Amino acid sequence: MDAGGVRTWYAEHGTGQPIVLLHGAFTDASQFRATVPALAERFRVLTPERRGHGHTPDIPGPITYELMAADMAAFLDTLQIGRAQLVGHSDGANVALLVALTRPDLVGRLVLISGNFHHDGLVDGLDLSELAASEYLAQAYGQVSPDGRAHFPVVAAKIFQMATTGPALKAADLGQVAARTLVMAGDDDMISAEHTLALYRGIPDSELAIIPGSSHALILEKAALCNGIILDFLTKDPAPTFLPIRRAQMPMSSL
């Protein structure tokens, strides 16, 4: 479909309330292969692939988080489905966060998996250039991209530039997120634990899940556990707690 001038590929599974899954960088919707079946039992699951990723062609010019958030808003507007639950992983979480900030009318509940609101949230010493030079990722890209295997270095350079200079939100910006939010990460993630905690603390109506024994690929490594936590968050209201600290002063309407 054409969404804001981007010829966007997407797949659709199941019926019910819409959920949009936003994949990470250097990959495509197939990264949710262990997630889609669980969610499609309850929801209408949409898996768009963003500009320069998967089956969606690249567009001349840079790739930025802001552009991809605008693309995603255009995708949701074009489908005319109203509010959707957004579940994003890695760069997809960053895009989902920006959509929640810029187009809150499009977002129901928000699940941010291994995302970062600022580029300094990556763990110290992480070398993203290794991903940009990955032969495995280049081959996977070439198998589905209409631009062909030879275009991967162009897209990889754009993604590398984007991830090393963005996103660049401040912790104070997170206070503007109105959606009820689940923040998830692996306990050995490429996003630092301190940054994940800052993301959780910055979003007023948020919950935190750290998945033990997992990395940045937690949705594949601990699929059953992650799916259960996500489904619980999306299908149930918050449980009352006996000894609230952070939430003690929250109005009952947000709980």
Shape, per Cα inertia axes: globular
Count of domains:
1
Q: Span from first to last CA? A: 37 Å
Could you give the count of β-strands? 9
Enumerate the strands of the largest sheet in spatial order, edge to edge or round the barrel. 3-5-4-6-7-8-9
Mean of the pLDDT scores? 95
Quickly give the structural class.
alpha/beta
Residues in β-strands, percent: 15-25%
Cα radius of gyration in angstroms: 17 Å
User: Helix-strand pattern, N to C?
Assistant: EEEEHEHEHEHHHEHEHH
Tell me which CATH architecture applies here. Answer: 3-Layer(aba) Sandwich
Approximate helicity band? 25-40%
Q: What's the main sheet like?
A: 7 strands, mixed
CATH domain topology: Rossmann fold
Question: Unreliable stretches, pLDDT < 50, 5 or more residues?
Answer: none
CATH class: Alpha Beta
CATH superfamily: Alpha/Beta hydrolase fold, catalytic domain
Helix run count: 9
